[in-house]
Amino acid sequence: MASGRFIASGSVTGVLYALPGGAGLVSEGDDSQRVVGDLYQVTPEHLEKLDELDGLDPEERRKSSRQRSRVLVRCLNNPGDSWEAWAWVWTGATDRMPRIESGDWLKANRPNISERLGQYPWFTLIGLICLLLFPLGLLRFPPVSYFKNPFAVIMYRTVEIGSVLSPFAAMYSLWLARRRGERDGLFGCLFVLAILGCILVISGLVSWWIQVVMK
Fold first, then answer.
1. First to last CA, the chain
2. Tally of CA atoms within 13 A in the half-sphere of 40 that contains its CB
3. pLDDT, tens only, 159-174
4. Same domain, 148 and 185
């Protein structure tokens, strides 16, 4: 609908069913039974393309149970406004089809909390946290001599080693994020920073090894 012009959110008289291929609007019932949706202004060419979304040829479309017909749309925000518009109405059997009482397909199919958490870019976030830990190994503040307790020294060294290895952990996490299909604006920047961090760590280790060998 990118090339269409949004007019308003509205409702039409009817009942909504969950069909195998999506929502099915059935023009039945009284005015108290409403199905909600969005109203767009489109061109005739755009309307023809919408007809073709079912993948049927013209002859099959004429015999299909989903037909385009004119309906009266009432504005949700201002019930006094109404428009006559095209809608795709289901004319087939609905005996075994679940009925959507709310009349709102998007609300009925909104993912629950576990599904929303599953869609969150967790591996990208882990990669970001790993890269934020990396500067701790470079700053080395406060110095290890500041700590007198042996346990504190061990913890300091553990954090120091972890921060040095964090670019590699970030690379692995971002690789998992890519396999999972996570995409956002930070992904590319984080990947570049992780590569630069790995190069910096490897360069430092090579330099340290050369100095040790030369000594």
1. 70
2. 14
3. 777 777 888 888 888 8
4. yes
